[in-house]
Amino acid sequence: MLAVAALLALCAGCSRSNSVSEGGAPQAALPPNQLIERLPLGDLAGAAPNLAANHIPNPYAGNAAAITAGKALFSQMNCVSCHAYDATGGMGPDLTDSFWRYGGAPAQVYASIFDGRPKGMPAWGKLLTSEEIWKIVAYLQTLGGTVPASFASRALQGDEPHEVNALNSMKGAQSEDYP
User: Fold this and answer.
1) Angle 130-132-134 from CA coordinates, rounded to 5°
2) Assuming Cys at both sites, which of 12, 20, 125, 167 could form a disulfide with 114, CB separation 3.0 to 4.6 Å?
3) For the segment 57-70, what is each residue's pLDDT rounded down to a tens digit?
């Protein structure tokens, strides 16, 4: 009973979202690296899955310097021990294919790195900055397995074999072009 009272007191002290200013006009949109830091990435028990974060584009996508830094971080943080130097997998999953258990959109990949995943993926959110994680995602995006943020809802299907055909059609490829 005391815990319920404390929770109610905590909730009462929370302020409403300030995405709209006091005058009712919307505030300027936050850059993706700040926006994803303000959105809960994990699922809450009993709540609908948070799909808003999945549509956030990578602020470093296509940035050559960021991609180079992301590749270096991929090695420095020992991602290669599970995913291999070419990210084709080993003990960990292949990051160059279209099978993404937890979604292959940039924000979904970010969340996998930040929060970690069951069966061996450590959480790097306390060791890497948001910018460093986005740079790793930018590097992974160059390997061809990730999907555009606009297809995040399709990427939620994850490791299902039928997802390969959907992703191939998005990329304009034939199914035999991908494993």
Assistant:
1) 70
2) 125
3) 899 999 999 999 99
Phi-psi domain of 42 (left: phi exceeds 0; alpha: psi -120 through 50; beta: other): beta
Pair of tokens at residue 177 = 């072009």
- Residue 57's nearest CA partner among 98, 103, 106, 102 is 106
* Listed residue (179, 97, 110) closest to 146, CA to CA: 97
* End-to-end CA, the chain: 55
With H, G, I as helix, E, B as strand and everything else as coil, classify residue 117: strand
User: Could you identify the residue written with the tokens 């939620």?
Assistant: 156
Question: What is the rounded CA–CA span in Å between residue 62 and residue 66?
Answer: 8
Question: Cα–Cα–Cα angle for 109, 58, 177, nearest 5°?
Answer: 65
Note the pLDDT of residue 73.
Answer: 97
Count of C-beta atoms within a 10 Å radius of residue 11: 8
Which of the residues in the chain have pLDDT under 70?
1-51, 53, 149-179
